[in-house]
Specification:
- The chain folds into 2 domains: 115 residues, Response regulator (Rossmann fold, 3-Layer(aba) Sandwich), CATH 3.40.50.2300; 96 residues, Orthogonal Bundle (Arc Repressor Mutant, subunit A).
- It is 40% helix and 22% strand.
- It has 230 residues and is of the alpha/beta class.
- It has 8 helices and 12 strands.
- The longest helix has 16 residues.
Length: 230
């Protein structure tokens, strides 16, 4: 189950990673409000954990913009701002739950389980992601296009999934590093460019009309007719 953590306290992020992983969650991270909003808009998460006091876009503004653009992801606000008035502001902005720091991780996990609990009879989401003339199959870790199918490595799949979910939009280098490798990994700067090269070859192999454009100094953008986020 994939969730998003938007938190600028790197020590707290490091402490939460093993706890959330042990509880069965796959974690994406953003450390400022602008990247957090972009990830929230472009990905389908089971839930998001959101701090209020963030660099860039502040947490409440982030949440209001996300809700205003139709993002329905359940959001737990996790913040040191724990007064009743702060809680009311967070809930009015669109948060589904509010937990003040300091907190017990057992309570955090219980609240996450409550937010991500699937109502009886609700269908599971498809494992396939359609993007223009491409289909990404998560279960098979494969890419299908007009010219055939190839199996992807995990990093290739993660990178292409992020590009597909934000098709037509600039994906910054920081965003791609965070989404594919995670903030915990120490990654050489050139690794992203290497995997972009691998994915471009995969697109050619399956005969796709999609192209990955380089936005020099900023990042990459997948261009494909008919692409749409999930």
């Amino acid at each position: 189950m994939r969730i998003l953590l938007v938190e600028d306290d790197l020590n707290l992020c490091a402490a939460l990673r093993p706890v959330l992983k042990a509880a069965g969650f796959t974690l994406d991270e953003a450390h400022d409000g602008d990247d957090g909003l972009q990830l929230l808009r472009q990905n389908c998460y089971a839930a998001a954990i959101l701090d209020r006091m963030l660099p860039g876009l502040e947490g409440l503004a982030l949440l209001r913009q996300a809700r205003g653009s139709g993002v329905a992801t359940p959001v737990l606000m996790l913040t040191a701002m724990g007064r009743v008035a702060d809680r009311v502001d967070g809930l009015d902005a669109g948060a589904d739950d509010y937990l003040a720091k300091p907190f017990d991780t057992r309570e955090l996990l219980a609240r996450l389980r409550a937010l991500t609990r699937r109502p009886a009879g609700e269908p599971l989401q498809s494992a396939a992601l359609h993007c223009g003339d491409l289909t990404l199959d998560k279960a098979e870790s494969s890419l299908n296009g007009p010219g055939g199918t190839v199996t992807l490595t995990q990093k290739e799949y993660d990178l292409l999934e992020q590009l597909c979910r934000g098709a037509g939009k600039l994906q910054t280098r920081d965003l791609l590093f965070g989404s594919v490798w995670g903030a915990a990994d120490i990654v050489e700067e050139g690794n992203l460019d290497t995997y972009i090269h691998f994915v471009r070859r995969r697109l050619k192999t399956v005969g796709s009309a999609a192209t990955i454009q380089t936005v020099r100094g900023l990042g990459y953008k997948l261009v494909t007719a008919g692409a749409a986020p999930c």
